[in-house]
């Protein structure tokens, strides 16, 4: 009985039959209903699922064209689905099925909201040098309105073991972060656990390395401290050089870390650590100097003192306020889908 | 290593015997169901032992190399099918189709290199087991649907009509295959959700259209398509069966093809 009713409802929706009683004073609204019925076609759903599949393949092959090939079929699917919800009796009779499909629409809206307001970025943070809200790379949705500039945290150092063959094991990074009440908190983050401050999530990455740290005293006696992050180690083991300008100065300083020991022996179990035997080659213009911790160097613009080496850790930064809502919508979708099939299958055995 | 491989080869032999007995049974119109079930259970027990030995030796589960992934999938597919074989006696003759399908994976497993791989730090999470476990249930459900669909297609082609007569009518097999696809859809959806949670924890993004994510999503779409097509066009059993096979092929490529041709961090370990 139920099957017959269902089939009727479906057949109507599927063929998109519109009732066009032309003598009716509500002709226009009836034409409207006809249009909605047509839009609600299940065959259209099939075509749109195929279109979405093609869009996914296209977006995958062309990274630059990730938006429209996905957005167009998804919007069409949402319209198709909303029209079906309005006109197809199946959804009125089967609440769980309705909830499932509505959860899909909610998911879509949340993903859209997330894409408009997200932030994705990257920053390297030198040990004990506070992060002050500046990222070295980022891209964000047009409506991103987070308070990144107010985020403060300090990388307090990290520990990474390596198995033979330079196989990286767990990353354990001690950090301190400032809560909205101004108080500081300590936390251990790592592979599966980001630091979350004001909705921004900081994930440790495999990018990390050494950062020579300097004190710079300009000709007015003004002293600042700065550090330069050398390329990631051991990834760029053989190009440990970078260019740097002291804060507030136009002087260009080129530094190279010349390490005289094996830090990560591929044949052993080892841990990431600072080198002990090294020299820092500093080039300013045509002058070349070798520096050790505590050494100073006089230039026309001021005095450069090399304090020593520190670690830096690269963090991937991610902001998306929709995450918990996405999870909730997914949970509703899956539970209602399971409930729908449960009801349907327990009502009648398969070999009845 | 030697011992765990020896145990594995004995398990594989048990599976092969189970398949051969099932095929011979159907061909001769006999029902050696107890022997087939006993052989499948023996194979499963031995394979469990082999996986356990290797797990203990390496300190991690079978999630890394092609050998391990094939091995754990043979195990989960055999578990899924054995369960169905035991619980739904009316479709036992489908073993004559499902087991030869398993032979392909068994053959592949035998030529895969059993060396060990590196266990990445991002795998140290319960999400590994949840994500992978859900994927295995999905594949298991699709395998059963494929077995039933092959019977429908053989009958439609007029092959072995008499020998397949011991199985229920095609309309009933079609309904059961559809139910497997429905269960598959639920578990595939759960797998995607678990994977997204894990990706967010491990790499700071829940979805990035990497090759495996893209293919897994396309597989999900093929399941949604099949379910809707069956409703929208009231498909006949053979056409639905064809779509089920298409889902299986897509899923197979996703699970066993993509992870081994892509160089992204998401190598897939299902
Ligand atoms: C692309 C994501 C979609 C998925 C995964 C999906 C999934 C499902 C599932 C699992 C069912 C239940 C099938 C059954 O009870 O036998 C169903 C039924 C249905 N779907 Fe969708 N759906 C999707 C999109 C849509 C859209 C866009 C529409 C809009 C027309 C739609 C319309 C329907 C209708 C009308 C039914 C009821 C069929 C019935 O039980 O008689 N679905 N869908």
From TrEMBL, chain B:
<dbReference type="Pfam" id="PF01578">
    <property type="entry name" value="Cytochrom_C_asm"/>
</dbReference>
<feature type="transmembrane region" description="Helical">
    <location>
        <begin position="6"/>
        <end position="29"/>
    </location>
</feature>
<feature type="domain" description="Cytochrome c assembly protein">
    <location>
        <begin position="70"/>
        <end position="265"/>
    </location>
</feature>
<keyword id="KW-1133">Transmembrane helix</keyword>
<keyword id="KW-0201">Cytochrome c-type biogenesis</keyword>
<keyword id="KW-0472">Membrane</keyword>
<feature type="transmembrane region" description="Helical">
    <location>
        <begin position="132"/>
        <end position="155"/>
    </location>
</feature>
<dbReference type="InterPro" id="IPR002541">
    <property type="entry name" value="Cyt_c_assembly"/>
</dbReference>
<dbReference type="InterPro" id="IPR045062">
    <property type="entry name" value="Cyt_c_biogenesis_CcsA/CcmC"/>
</dbReference>
<feature type="transmembrane region" description="Helical">
    <location>
        <begin position="61"/>
        <end position="86"/>
    </location>
</feature>
<feature type="transmembrane region" description="Helical">
    <location>
        <begin position="214"/>
        <end position="233"/>
    </location>
</feature>
<feature type="transmembrane region" description="Helical">
    <location>
        <begin position="176"/>
        <end position="199"/>
    </location>
</feature>
<feature type="transmembrane region" description="Helical">
    <location>
        <begin position="36"/>
        <end position="55"/>
    </location>
</feature>
<protein>
    <recommendedName>
        <fullName>Cytochrome c assembly protein domain-containing protein</fullName>
    </recommendedName>
</protein>
<keyword id="KW-0812">Transmembrane</keyword>
<feature type="transmembrane region" description="Helical">
    <location>
        <begin position="240"/>
        <end position="261"/>
    </location>
</feature>
<feature type="transmembrane region" description="Helical">
    <location>
        <begin position="93"/>
        <end position="112"/>
    </location>
</feature>
């Amino acid at each position: 009985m139920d099957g017959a009713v269902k089939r009727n409802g479906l057949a109507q929706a599927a063929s998109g039959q519109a009732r066009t009683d032309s003598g009716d004073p509500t002709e226009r609204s009836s034409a409207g209903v006809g249009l909605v019925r047509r839009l609600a076609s299940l065959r259209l759903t099939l075509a749109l699922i195929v279109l979405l599949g093609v869009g996914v393949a296209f977006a995958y092959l062309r990274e630059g064209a990730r938006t429209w090939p996905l957005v167009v079929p998804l919007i069409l699917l949402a319209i198709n689905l909303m029209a079906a919800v309005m006109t197809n009796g199946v959804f009125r009779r089967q609440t769980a099925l309705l909830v499932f499909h509505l959860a899909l629409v909610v998911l879509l809206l949340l993903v859209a909201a997330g894409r408009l307001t997200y932030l994705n970025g990257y920053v390297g943070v030198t040990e004990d040098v506070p992060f002050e809200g500046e990222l070295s790379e980022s891209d964000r949705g047009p409506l991103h309105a987070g308070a990144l500039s107010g985020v403060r945290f300090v990388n307090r150092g990290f520990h990474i073991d390596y198995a033979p063959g330079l196989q990286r094991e767990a990353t354990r990074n001690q950090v301190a972060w400032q809560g909205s009440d101004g108080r500081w908190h300590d936390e251990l983050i790592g592979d599966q656990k980001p630091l979350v401050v004001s909705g921004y999530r900081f994930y440790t990455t495999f990018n990390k390395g050494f950062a020579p740290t300097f004190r710079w005293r300009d000709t007015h006696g003004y002293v600042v401290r700065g550090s330069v992050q050398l390329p990631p180690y051991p990834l760029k083991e053989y190009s440990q050089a970078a260019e740097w300008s002291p804060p507030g100065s136009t002087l260009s300083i080129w530094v190279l870390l010349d390490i005289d020991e094996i830090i990560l022996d591929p044949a052993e179990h080892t841990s990431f650590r600072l080198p002990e035997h090294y020299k820092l080659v500093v080039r300013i213009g045509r002058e070349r100097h070798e520096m050790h911790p505590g050494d100073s160097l006089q230039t026309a613009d001021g005095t450069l003192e090399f304090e020593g080496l520190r670690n830096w850790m690269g963090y991937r930064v991610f902001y998306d306020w929709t995450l918990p809502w996405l999870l909730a919508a997914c949970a509703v979708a899956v539970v209602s889908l399971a409930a729908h099939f449960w009801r349907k299958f327990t009502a009648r055995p398969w070999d009845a | 290593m030697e011992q765990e491989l020896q145990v594995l080869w004995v398990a594989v032999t048990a599976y092969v015997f189970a398949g051969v007995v099932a095929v011979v049974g159907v061909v001769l119109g006999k029902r050696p169901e107890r022997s087939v079930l006993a052989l499948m259970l023996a194979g499963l027990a031995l394979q469990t032992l082999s996986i356990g030995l290797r797990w203990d030796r390496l300190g991690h589960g079978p999630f890394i190399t092609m050998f391990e992934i094939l091995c754990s999938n043979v195990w989960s597919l055999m578990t899924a099918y054995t369960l169905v074989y035991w619980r739904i006696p009316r479709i036992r003759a489908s073993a004559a189709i499902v087991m030869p399908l398993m032979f392909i994976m068994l053959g592949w497993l035998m030529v895969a290199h059993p060396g060990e791989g590196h266990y990445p730090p991002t795998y140290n999470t319960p999400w590994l087991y949840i994500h992978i476990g859900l994927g295995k249930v999905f594949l298991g459900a699709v395998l059963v649907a494929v077995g039933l669909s092959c019977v429908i297609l053989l009958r439609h082609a007029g092959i072995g009509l008499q020998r397949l007569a011991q199985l229920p009518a095609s309309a009933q097999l079609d309904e059961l295959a559809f139910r497997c696809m429905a269960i598959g859809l639920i578990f595939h959806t759960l797998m995607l959700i678990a994977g997204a949670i894990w990706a967010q924890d491990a790499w700071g993004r829940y979805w990035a259209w990497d090759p495996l994510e893209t293919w897994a999503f396309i597989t999900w779409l093929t399941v949604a398509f099949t379910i809707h097509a069956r409703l929208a066009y009231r498909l006949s059993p053979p056409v639905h069966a064809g779509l089920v096979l298409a889902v299986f092929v897509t899923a197979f490529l996703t699970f066993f093809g993509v992870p081994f041709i892509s160089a992204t961090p998401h190598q897939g370990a299902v």
